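wait is this the right file?? whatever heres the structure
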């Protein structure tokens, strides 16, 4: 095996190792995308159940998820991507 072949082989091994290292990083970052703003949830007494007919999906502050039943966000909860459309908190305001 000549020097050029060894260089090529080293490059392939490095690329393969880099790909293997990236698998857990992608898996972890995928989970990191889903986040809860615990401080705001506590402050505004967020709950995953509606209060009567008051729920996030009919609140002015709700930012819908990908589907009507998927978790979304809230304009008052920075970084929180796990707001249930059927959730509720004390800041609820009827959507016009
Ligand atoms: Fe839901 Fe409260 Fe945000 Fe309204 S303000 S969308 S009730 S979390």
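ok assuming it is, sequence goes like this
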């Amino acid at each position: 095996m000549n020097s050029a072949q060894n260089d090529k082989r080293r490059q392939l091994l490095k690329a393969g190792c880099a790909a293997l290292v990236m698998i857990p990083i992608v898996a972890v970052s995928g989970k990191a995308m889903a986040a809860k703003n615990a401080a705001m949830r506590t402050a505004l007494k967020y709950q995953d159940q509606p209060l009567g007919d008051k729920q996030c999906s009919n609140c002015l502050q709700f930012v819908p998820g990908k589907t009507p039943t998927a978790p979304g966000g809230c304009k008052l909860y920075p970084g929180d991507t796990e707001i249930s459309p059927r959730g509720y908190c004390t800041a609820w305001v009827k959507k016009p």
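Helices lie at 3-32, 38-43. so i think its the right one actually
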